[in-house]
Each structure stands twice: as structure tokens, then as C-alpha cells.
Amino acid sequence: MKSKIVIFVLLLATLLVSACGAASGELTIQDAWARPANTGENGAAYFIIENGTASDDSLMGVSSDIATAAEVHMSMADANGVMSMQMQDAVIIPAGEPVEFKPGGLHVMLVNLTRDLKPGETITLTLNFKETGNVVVEVLVKEP
Amino acid sequence: MIKKNLYVVLFIMTAAIALTVLVEFFFRRPYSFHGTVITPPLPVTDFSLQTANNEKFRLSDQKGKIVLLFFGYTSCPDVCPVTLATFKQVYEKLGDDAQKIRFVMITADPDRDTPEIVSAYTARFNPEFIGLSGDITKLELIWKELGVFVEKQDSGSAAGYLVSHTASVYVLDQNGSLFMTFPYGTTATAMTDDIVQMLK
Description:
Number of helices of chain B: 5
CATH class of the largest domain in chain B: Alpha Beta
Structural class of chain A: mainly beta
Number of domains of chain A: 1
Strand content of chain A: over 45%
Number of strands of chain A: 10
Distance between the termini of chain B: 49 Å
Number of strands of chain B: 10
Oligomer: heterodimer
Order of helices and strands of chain A: HEEEEEEEEEE
Strand order of the largest sheet of chain B: 1-10-9-4-5-6
Distance between the termini of chain A: 66 Å
Strand content of chain B: 25-35%
Structural class of chain B: alpha+beta
CATH class of chain A: Mainly Beta
CATH architecture of the largest domain in chain B: 3-Layer(aba) Sandwich
Number of domains of chain B: 2
């Protein structure tokens, strides 16, 4: 009887470890790019956030040294084709589910650029997540 | 014998031509536009707005050209550059035919967008693109006539107010009448195909 319990516990432990193994990845940022723009204009950056960890996370904010402010906004259309943008306080990044920032949807708005963004250049953004903390992202400037 | 063969050949040729004509007649569908076509095209009241260097852009001066009109604002980081980038692709896809088109952005934010600012903005995408601004009363008449919704929106953004606006592209035909609209997100290929069809 005792040995059966030991085997059961061992099996359970193995299961738990393998389950953790499956979600032991990290939170990563893929395909980051920004639209070319001039000094003084507002720019936009896009990427895909993949949360490979076992728990949900939230993007709390973005910082950048090439703009007065970096804000997360969501563009959305109503039934009449009117587009508006809404600033987002936090964006939930569910475990195992990619969240795509893309034109006409979620994006980072780089307010009042302090330098030109020319195609081929790279800029740096720091994304602040509630659980993961800061993630520094290299962002390629390119035409869409 | 030779004469008989000749008749056979003639018969086969006639049958082949008749078959081609029939296939063409029954299977060729009329072109279906990607955009939303307005039937009949809606005449648009003439207007004049300012571009850079105090120059005027008058709609009636564009007769004979197709005019693509987009309403946006230069502080807009996402939707407006998407549409202008699409315009840029359409221009390139059209090749020489691009000279028969006017690509125009009219501001939805005249308080911040001077004619110079809008022109500099559109020129960054293509120097031939036209950026327009002007008096709010003139702009409001154009917005109203075309059904363009414009509203300032306090967002708490460091960029100041944002502007909610209709993001469709308005296509005016060679007579200056509203022929079709493209909803936001229409691809450059779809726009180009429709314009090529209008040029036929």
C-alpha cells in the first residue's frame, strides 16, 4: 500500500514537473518594427508579445528615450467607419496566447519624437510588465 | 475533293470563332468593384483649400483626373500613416497611370494642421501627394457634404487631444462626382484594380 502511494506521488510530481516544463518559456517580443517618422511627429511601434510563462501578465507601460512619451493606444473603428484611438492603462497578456500590436489596432504611440526615424535604423523601447518586469526591445524602423 | 476539304476547314474555323464568342458572352462577368460604388455618382460642390506656400487647390481644376480624398490629421500615428502608405503603394502600382490620379489628404484637425504642416506630412510619403487645410467653416462644409465625421477627443494622452474621424477614402471620378468609397483597410491591390477599371 505504502509503495503504491509513493508511486502515485512520484507520478504526480512527474506530471507537475512536465506541466511546468511545457510553460517554462519566457515572455518574448517578436517582429518589433516602427513606422518612419520625423522629429516632432508622433510615431508608432508594433510587435507581437508571446507569453510563454505559466501565468497571465500585463503590459503596464512603455518608455523610450526618443520621444516625449510612449503610450499604448488602441485604434478602433465603429460601424460607420469612424476610427478613434483609446489610451490603454494596461494590456493583459494571457499565458500561451500571443497578443499582436498592429496597424489599425494596438500600438505604441511615440509622442513628439525627439529624432527622425529613418528606414533601416533601430530604436530601443522598454516594455514594463507587471510580472516579468522590464523587457528591452530592439525595434527596426521600416516601411510597412 | 480539294474544294470539299476547304469547306471543312472553313466550317471548323467558323465553329471555333462562334464558340469563342459564345464563351466570352456567357462567362465573362462584369467587373465587380472592391469599393462601395455610389449609383449614380454624386456631384460634389466645388471647393478650394490651401496647400503649402499659400497655393490653392480647387476641386473643379482637377476635372479629367480621378481624385482620392482622405481625411486625417498629422498627429495621428497609426491609421492616417497606414492610409498614406497605402496611397504610396497604389501610386507605385499604377505606374504612368498615377499621373491621372490626385492623391489628397484633407485635415480633420485645422487647429493644429496648417497647410504647410499637412503638405510636409503628405510629401514625406510622396512629393506629388497633396496636403490641404483651411478655414474651419470651409472644411466643415466639405465634411458635411461627404458625410465625414470629425470629433476632438480628450484622451489624457501627452499628445493632447486626439481626433476621431471617418477613415474611408473617397473616390471622385473624372467629373468631380463621388463615385465610390474605400473603407479603412482596403488593400493597395484592391484600390489599384478599381482605379484601373475606372480609367478604362
